[in-house]
């Protein structure tokens, strides 16, 4: 199982939440989250943000708006 740094994990959160990771990566993310309170809090904040924007559900948002939001999340964590 790959061990992720916090920076690597943050870059994978969107794929993790979209269930777009392979089993090995997913297990690595779960192991990191189990041992890193900071990243676990970050994930919960990310989920809360998604939940707040989920009215309407993300799949019912206009595609361009959904894409802009996801790009903003990814870009924020690159800096």
Automatic annotation (TrEMBL):
* Matches recorded under Gene3D superfamilies: Anti-sigma factor, zinc-finger domain (1.10.10.1320)
Where is each Putative zinc-finger domain found?
Answer: 6-39
**Could you tell me the superkingdom of the organism this chain comes from?**
Bacteria
By its UniProt entry, which Pfam families does this protein fall under?
Answer: zf-HC2
What keywords would UniProt list here?
Answer: Transcription, Transcription regulation
Report if keyword Transcription regulation is assigned. yes
Q: Give the protein's recorded name.
A: Anti-sigma factor family protein
Organism (species): Nonomuraea purpurea
